Amino acid sequence: MSSTDTTMQSIPRTGRLVPIVVFIVAIALIALTPFLGNYYIRVVNGLLIYILLGIGLNIVIGYAGLLDLGFVAFYAVGAYTYGLLASAQLGIHLPFLLIVLIAALLGMLVGILLGVPVLKLRGDYLAIVTLGFGEIIRILVNNVDWLTGGPKGIARLDKASIFGIEIARPVDFYWLLLVTVFIVATIVWRMEKSILGKAWAAIREDQDAARGIGINTTNAKLAAFATSATIGSIAGVIFAASQRFVSPESFSLQESVLIVLMIVIGGIGNILGIIAGAAILILLPEVLREFAEWRILFLGLLMIALIILRPAGIVPRSFGPERLIRGLFGK
Amino acid sequence: MTLVFDNLRKQYGNNVAIDAVSTRFEPGLIHGIIGPNGAGKSTLINMTAGSYTVSAGSISLDDRKLSGLKKYQIANAGIARTYQNIRLFDQMTVLENLEVCFYPQEVGQTWKEVIWPPFAKKREARRQDACMELLSFFNLQGYAHAYAGSLPYGRQRMLEIARALVTNPKVLLLDEPAAGLNHHETAELTAKLSELKSQNRVMIIVEHDMDLVMALCDRIVVMHHGKLLFQGTPGEVQASSDVQLAYLGTANDIDDIKAAAQDRRAQLGIRTRQRS
Prior knowledge:
- The structure holds 2 protein chains of 2 kinds.
- By secondary structure, chain A is mainly α.
- Chain A has a domain of 214 residues.
- Chain A has 14 helices and 4 strands.
- In chain A, helix 2 packs parallel to helix 7, helix 2 packs antiparallel against helix 10 and helix 8 packs across helix 10.
- Chain B is of the alpha/beta class.
- Chain B has 12 helices and 10 strands.
- In chain B, the strands form 2 sheets. In chain B, strands 6-7-8-3-9-10 form a 6-stranded mixed beta sheet, sandwiched between helices.
- The interface between A and B is large, with 34 and 51 residues.
- Chain A: InterPro entries: ABC_transp_permease (IPR001851), LivM-like (IPR043428).
- Chain A: Its main location: membrane.
């Protein structure tokens, strides 16, 4: 058995055409968006928030292989952190960036608090418990009226500003979100490539064998949970600041399911796939607005088609950011 | 560096799987554990590696008690193993399967790897050099970037042994490394394992292939119904009428033991072929 017959099984190297086309289209879309009407910029902002959420949840589902159905809870933690610390609700008006920091730490803390008891569970059991957790958070904010305003939510949140520059128009949030997505995606991608990312993959493939090579799986999984929760919480802050209103109905189970769907349809474990999945699931309903009542049917058909035609998602794991960069710079 | 079993016991309810096993495994030697089906060979391996808990007695490496530690702690104490049914990280590349073994010593500086790319590059290069060397030793370098799950069965066995060796363990536990291998691959395995013999390493092999065990092992422990029946050199084991009785029920010569073992191997071969 010689080593030459293995090249076919190796991960194929891509040509340069696809990465260059993807790059040019992306730059063109990014540059053109600010010239669209406010309505369309808002749609794109929504897309960017879902990309942020997808990147966060993908750490747990795609990298570490843990099915978390309660991710929206961390999104709510971030949104309500902004709602409470930048409004007349408690009479507290902290600056935007400070709240981002507080929400990030709070998200991490809640992630660890949830992670410690549930990470012993696997597969379906973990999915059910996290689903319950997501619902508990939503029901909690719905009922603690004196703090969260209950079902009415919290309105008239402060306008966000960074170093004296007001972030209020949709286009301001567009740039803020774009920068955030870029930074978060880069950090998460570098985590995936790090030794911790490899340990996550090992846990996903075979948890017991991972322990057998000396990986403290509890700690590695907690790290995944905490990172994911932090990102969800940051996304929540930006969401609340852009809506200037928070209420429990933004954090329903459907949101968690939608983010999971984005990951599965786009390409599990791959940041580029998540961007594609978010684009399809968020933009398609806008394009097909006239056929709104058919939306779920479309989604169902899309899922069936994908399972048959592209079970690894639209952009499979093997076409990750590394391939894109390698294609662009010709290495 | 000696692995010591002291009055070791494993019990499931009223069912005693391992009963009062005391023995020592010395470095620089290859130890075989043999015995009929259900004798408790794999249970010993699984207890040593921390996959099963110890009901009573203790396992220690030098003066350090291992029994009672968590599985990952036992691994970090220098115990590495392979599995009876291969357990690789299928959707990771061959190289990544080995690289991930550096996790315990490198995880502390993950943050630096994330924020400072040159550091990550340097570290990755060092990691990969070490792993490629090991892959070359097992003639797997051509597969480095293939997914582990896509390798032929025999190569997967080799890769699993390579993975166990990345961190240069003090104890190497091999659970039926020759199961499902053809004659050519078994010969290659035997050669590689004898090369791996080192003064700094205790090697323990559970195996049904008697030719391999007799050719490779310096000391053999014979298990029977969860008890330690006999231990000695291959010659002493072959001469022992106790051992022959345990295998066959009647005292007979080593050829009969070999024939019984051959049957078992044929069964295993069929099973693995169906699986892959």
